Please model this.
Amino acid sequence: MKNTLMNTPNHFDSIAEHFNRIWYFSDDYKDFVISHILNDLQFSPDDILADIGGGTGSFTARLQRDGAFKCAYCIEPSAPMCGEASKFSNITAICTDAHGFLEQNIPFTKMLLKEVIHHITDRETFWLNTYNSLPYEGKLLIITRPQQISFPLFDAAREAFAKNQPPHDMIENELLECGFNINTSHRSHTFALNKKSWYEMLQHRFMSDLGVFSSQEIDEGIKEIESRYDGEVIDIIDHLIFIKATK
Ligand SMILES: C[S@@+](CC[C@H](N)C(=O)[O-])C[C@H]1O[C@@H](n2cnc3c(N)ncnc32)[C@H](O)[C@@H]1O
Model:
């Protein structure tokens, strides 16, 4: 693992060790996301992938295995998350944030930003530097969610999510202004999850938006959800937005 960042604490430091277990829906869900990334990024053997905010590297490593391209970097500012990523032998984990990675001038041809765009500050500068770093026809893929999330959350969590999430048309406009060609797809995956697992994910604050709530507020939120949904399982619809940008 290369470390180029002072260890700035972030929400994910505290859940790194359990991230793969608590941010987990099903193998089907993972296959669904991976197959769309492979299809959108169209890897060729010479490609170099930069997975920005790659977390514990489980998606980076799976993409490297299935995409069979030249090499993959998992760029992750949380040292504990990056430490998990460094356990994969087929990827290189770099402990830095989105801007820090570009400052290192490491060549790459494809970039992935999965569920991370809301963490990146000064996006205009980031897009511009990404555009300048990519070769002709290089691609980046952003995977994000609409501000009105369809997850069965309690109201206050839903509001916190909307506040932290940049609207996808704002991201599209920024990319267009920078010179990228863009192509956006809305894709959904619906599945039923045992309520106990869903509540455990909430209690572990699996999304950073939940980090502002105390344990008591989370427990009250779970009661609010419980009053709305009968039975032992809960239907989850994940509406994902895939924004593909090509230089
Ligand atoms: C929801 S997780 C997504 C992890 C991974 N992309 C996945 O889908 O499994 C968001 C990740 O972004 C990282 N992150 C936060 N701020 C960042 C920044 N400024 N630049 C790059 N990554 C960042 C967090 O540490 C965290 O690991």
Summary: The beta strands are 2-3, 48-52, 71-75, 92-95, 110-114, 139-144, 181-194, 233-246. The longest strand covers residues 181-194. The chain has one domain: 2-189+237-246. The first helix runs from residue 19 to 22.
